[in-house]
Amino acid sequence: MGLDRRAFIKFVVGGAAGTLFTPIPWKLADDASIWSQNWSWIPRLKYGALTADATYSKLCPAGCAVKVKKVAGIAYGVEGNSANELSKGGVCPLCATGSQMLRSPSRVAGPMKKDGDKFKPISWDEAEALLADKLKGLKGQDGKVAAISGDLSGTANEVLSGFLAGLGSKSYYYMPADQTAMAKAWNGVMGGSGQIGYDLEEADLILCIGADIMDAFGPVVRNQKAFAAKRPMEGDKTLTLVYAGPVRNRTAAVADKWVAVRPDGAAAFAMGLVNLLAKSGKSASLGGFSEFADLAAKFGPEVVEKLAGVKPEALKDVAKALLVAKNPVIVVGSESGQGAGVALSAAGVTLNAMLGSLNVLPEFPKAVASAPDRAGLLAKDLVGWLAAVDAGKAPVPEVLFVYEANPAYSLPQAGNMAKTLRKAGMLVSFSTFMDETAAMADLVLPAPHPFERLDDAQSPYGLGKATYVLATAVVAPEKDCKGTPDFILGLSGKLGVDLGFGAFEDVLKAKVEAIGADWDALAGGAVYVSDKKGSAQASLDAGTMSKALAGIKGEGLVLIAQAHLNIGTGKLATPPLNLTTIRDTELYGKDVFVQMCAATAKSLGLSEGAKVKLAAGGADISARVNLSEGVMPGVVAAPLGLGRTAWDPYTKGKGDNVCKILAVSAEPGTGLSVWAGSAVSVAKM
Length: 685
Hints:
Elements: H1 5-21, H2 24-36, E1 50-57, E2 64-71, E3 74-80, H3 98-102, E4 112-115, E5 118-121, H4 124-136, E6 145-149, H5 156-166, E7 172-174, H6 178-189, E8 195-196, E9 205-209, H7 220-230, E10 240-245, H8 250-254, E11 257-260, H9 266-279, H10 289-296, H11 301-308, H12 312-324, E12 328-332, H13 342-354, E13 360-361, H14 374-378, H15 382-390, E14 399-403, H16 407-410, H17 414-422, E15 426-430, H18 436-440, E16 443-444, E17 455-458, E18 466-471, H19 484-494, H20 504-515, H21 519-523, E19 527-530, H22 542-550, E20 558-562, E21 587-588, E22 591-596, H23 598-604, E23 611-616, E24 619-627, E25 635-639, E26 665-666, E27 673-674, E28 678-679, E29 681-684
Parallel strand pairs: 6-7, 6-14, 9-10, 9-12, 10-11, 14-15, 15-16, 20-25, 22-24
Antiparallel strand pairs: 1-2, 2-3, 4-5, 4-16, 8-13, 17-18, 18-19, 20-28, 21-22, 23-24, 23-29, 26-27
């Protein structure tokens, strides 16, 4: 059937008339205006000079080099800084919302003290006096003062950890991440120094085992830029990307090949590759490699298939591709960005060493001499420590500082972890926003927004070279906030703890001088990159690895939690503008969706849209089912970042928090807390 000219005109006119008389488009237009421009807290811009000031945004885990666009001094937008090699003009979905989050209704307006079940405002002087009085009697008592940091790259950690050391406490912990798992393997078990890096720019083949480099692993924008540079729309492609993991995620979607691997079998898959490479004559100049190769020989293709779900031919194809490549790089991690074990990290290091791609970055000199070494702190197990506190095997801290972190929400078995945090005599949250941890704290001391403060980042994890970048305050503070390092330096003076500096700016200037960089250039948005390499000397512990690998079963239903930057992170809820980017198959109304393939759903008696309860670790969440063949059999995938109980009305109460059901276990041999690919039960509601 066709349309002549007259019929076509009738169709168009009729459609236009129908559009005028139906309320639907006008409702949609109204909704669009509400979601895009009419937030009550967006400022009305004034006439004035247009500027774009360079800084570094830490709204995302790795950070982005950005320019903050302003009119008459008021920030209204963010763009990537093309002059900075770290981001090369790109910006992630979180840092892009930086100007919006400056005026978020969830920002903490000023210092607050818990009074009953409510907060009352106090001054900064009152907060300092309160803490000084509390801490005086705790000096010299290890474990009575503790701190948790969610900023894995900043020199602020030297101030905080040095302060704790001055009080006689070693209880300083970083939030778990792929970097902490690698530090436990490389710096802890293997005895290496420096930081493992990944030189993606020089690679001709990248094999990602679990690490979602295009969405959730390391400096995502830099990863995307490195990929795009070697995969032009026109011309020859000089990079092959292979993704090995349980879900066809955003890295797998652009990869040349997706190899479906069970999340609990990722280490077995990596050991299978070590075995095949060793049989092809590849070796590594790591201590104990011969014994390690003997251990890897136990992971033949048939064993790997049983433990990881990978067909023998698929394993052999990946090994062949690695052998043919000139500059292959293996990146290991977890789909959620946390919870992986030493076994996977050590196997990844070994693969890179065998292929001549082991890349070790040197640590920059410390500015605060009394601060513990960063590598040692990264190798510590926060989840294990909290479990010990809960079980009475470690002292309950009288004062617990939380800096740039939201452990009450984002740690595995979040409900249990929150209960343990409440045991602290005084919980102090240094948070820009009223997140779940701040909401339960005894004292909330608001940190400035990243655009309002002086900060830095040294070698964000995932980079291929030692890198240093400085963040400067490009807008005036909109709240009564204070830089956490400056507050701690003032507090240390009251307690007789000499950190060698009176202001954080002096700390950073000393850091820059020790590195040999130029302060003015860094303050103007430049980045310092060193070509120096760290020592690649380390030893493989086949005995420890054997125990760790023995825990792999490769059976049962397992949960994989997926991190997506557009949805948010543990310490930053979904920015309002980003709510419109969440797919209906991830969140619809207040229901979070979990994904599974048709075969898995059939085995559980489930269909599309079915409401289910997922349970693990003594907790449960409710969700709906979305059928997707982008999830391998035996795996249930769920998005992280939803189910907020604090923050603002735009994000609160949407979906459920998957962290509640990430069941923790101790990796055999290493004792490290792990939860990547934890067992889960699913029942129809």
